[in-house]
Amino acid sequence: MSRAAGREPRRLTRWWRRRSLRTRMTVIAATAIAVSVFAAFQVAIELLDRELQDTAKNQLRADSRVLAANAERAGLAQLPLPPYPGSGGLVRVILPDGSTRTPAGQPALPAVSEPAGRVAQGASADLMESTGSDDDGYLIYTLRAGGGAVQAARVADGSQNNRFGWGMLLIGLFCVAGGALVGRTVARTGLAPIDRLAAAAVRVAHTRDLDAYVPDEGGGEIRRLIRSINDMLAALRDSRRAQRLLAEDAAHELKTPLTSLRLNVELLIRLDRRGTLDSALPPESRTRLLNDVGAQVSELSTLAAELTDLARGDVSDESTEVLDLADVVVAAATRARSRVPDIEVALDVTSVWVSGRPAGLQRAVLNLIDNAGKWSPADQPIQVRLRAEGASAVLEVDDAGPGIDAADVPRVFDRFYRAESARALPGSGLGLSIVQRVVDAHGGRVTVARSKRGGALLRVDLPAAAPPAPTARLAGEDTAVR
Fold it and tell me: Does the pTM exceed 0.90?
């Protein structure tokens, strides 16, 4: 039986969860009204019962005082008791010897109780008592008078309460039915904007039309929900537009290296099939052609990697941690020197702690150094400076090249943008765009200006972080050493 009893609440919960919000609101409204009516019914019955009891007691006291006054004048034995008229209050006289007198034709009252007898003997002045049940009994008031006592009584009658209770029950049922109807109407009216919002979402899902707009209506939570949905649709539109532009730009940028690579490979294949590869291409030309093919393959690989990195956006499996940006800058400079041995990087860095993703930050610094390396003369080093400035970590990459034209500055961080003077240099035009994305993801800012040496000065400002506790730092270093 315990298992069956445990299944019932779960079954009721599943049934409730399957109901629509409109049905739930209707049931809740009807239940709330039913509980309110029941509570009001109980309070009203209690108040009515007390009021009737007080009225009956006051009437009995008044009738007893009249009898007592007459008994004092005429005596208990000679007190006139008119015949019972067939309805109304009941009276009884208790004589000093314990015997009783009642009007002729009056229904018999219960025997005199022991407490009432003590009142007749003078032990107390009066007594209010009830006998039997609330629906079948008597309310009797005993008052000391003339050496004995007089009693006034009423039959306990609950019919008035019962009539009132049935009336309240009928009113309650009407209120519950009306509350359910009102709750249904209110739920339908209040949820109409949500229904239209759901219809718009279904339409967007079926048609893939992100240009849909949900009318801003309602108020409070409904308005905030509609605005959130419209903001989400706008963000999705921007994302899809960005994806389309990225695909178009990628196709355009891939076309040139792919075309050149295809022509070179087709030339090699055609000469090889004719058997004239050695005679048609001297060793110097063949070496130059193979070097071109290798450079084009390298360019395509770099472009594919940068496109992948750019398309990922802020999505990364790398976790954020508090790190020393000086370590990131030194590691990026080391990688830059290994990739281009002729490049010279002069470091002037101080320890500054930031909260970020190590690999992403290192990629951004490496792109800045690579970009500077394209322009800096061979006899002039790239200057990389890192310092703390207020609440920011400031990184500056300074080259001694020709600098960036004022007309190119607004677009220097655009994807695939390359200035006229950079068309002949290797690169995809994505390096600085990736730098800006990484810096934005870390809550920073990247700007470009002209350096004192006449070249470009790219500056990155990142929010500084408090260094970790010494114990945590030492533990991390020990782990790294192991």
Answer: no
